Amino acid sequence: MQPSRRAALYLRISLDATGEMLAIDRQREDCLRICDERGWTIVGEFVDNSVSASDERKKRPGYDALISAYDAGSFDALACYDLDRLTRQPRQLEDWIDRAKTGQLVIVTANGEADLSTDGGMLFARIKLAVARGEVDRKSARQKRALQQRADMGRPPLGVRLTGYTTTGEIVESEAVLIRRIFEEFSHGESLKGIAARFEAEGIKTRRGGRWNYSSISSILRNPRYAGLAIYKGEVTGKPGNWEPLVSEDQFALVQARLADPRRKTNKIGTHRRHLGSGLFLCCDCGSRIYAWSGNRYRCPNACLVRSIAPVDAYVISVIKARLSLTDVLARMRRAPAESATPLEAESRALRARLELIENDYDAGHIDGRRYSVATEKIRVELQDIERRLAAISGTAPLVELLSRPDPAAAFDDLTLMAQRTVLDSLMTVILRPGKHGDRRFNPATVPIHWNGANSLA
Ligand SMILES: [Zn+2]
What we know:
Layout: E1 6-13, H1 24-37, E2 41-49, H2 61-71, E3 77-80, H3 83-86, H4 90-101, E4 106-109, H5 119-153, H6 173-187, H7 192-201, H8 214-221, E5 229-232, E6 235-240, H9 249-260, E7 282-283, E8 291-293, E9 297-299, E10 306-308, H10 309-324, H11 327-335, H12 341-363, H13 369-403, H14 408-414, H15 417-427, E11 428-432, E12 449-451
Parallel strand pairs: 1-2, 1-3, 3-4, 7-11
Antiparallel strand pairs: 5-6, 8-9, 9-10, 11-12
Helix pairs in contact: 6-9, 7-8, 9-12, 9-13, 10-14, 12-13, 13-15
The protein binds zinc ion.
């Protein structure tokens, strides 16, 4: 019977895209099982999250603590999922082999392949590591070349200058103000035509003195260079350019999601409207969306009711502002950060690229129709899910931004009507009941408001 050993577990999750992502919990389960089989006592667990074992410049706090604990004599057995988890550096492996050879330390791996106490086991470990190491070195040489290339591509392109920048990539502030405003108003729910119309009304011209229109606004919103993203042959390279961005990558991603949303044109918020509740308020009788009618009245399309716009809007705005000034509720909402759009947008781009590849393969006759539809269907389902999530983020973006202001209730007044409508739609559902004839005073009971559960403001 072997003497019971004091065992340490070393667990590491790596996200270095080698496809070996294995949850900590599963590693732990397997390691605990082999310790249990041997009757060892667990004296410590050392964990590193998302840290690569191949890059010696990266700090691995769990690994460092493991070494210290060993040097302090805290354990004489070590369990890890496999040797790759423990180290991918030859020098470190030799250290572990030395510790195992002297008989002071037993190393076991959950996949059973490491036995550093025998010559064969050591040889196997060294070969395996050398092979993995070669792959890492090749990868890093590739990355260095790619970095150089991206730096070249990251230069502001020569030739026709981009509105908002000089030809050498300096910001032209008078133009940058407009660019930022275009992104802001669009992500707040304003339409492309609406933005152009406001610029026209304010006498704002393009830099060549022309009129803003649907397509000039759209081409600005679609240009990744405003988010500081380098483009090469029309594609985003995924690396930042060396000029200062005018909008954040997140905002850019949200805007792309909205631009790509096929529902945008019929979107209840995104179309150009002149009244707060048009297309948002619901009829209490038939549940239809209510629209403005004849300029100063809301009307159910099924003619269930007609209400004066002004008192209803005034009441709804007062309720929104009262709600926005409740600091405790706001604090609760601020604590729940919205999912970031950038990784979703990247995922969506990757899926679209895959769709295109499959389509090319099909066109070229490399795959048959059945495989084509199986492959594309899967991707389309994933895409739909991502786009639903993106739509959810872009829907609440103005609200989240509003809540970051020092006085959200006051800031609500400064929002454009489209942004106010977006905030309203994220917060609440407003229902209209018929007003009583001859009732001179506005009765709030005729405008019941339901707070949206997702924001739990009620
Ligand atoms: Zn109705």
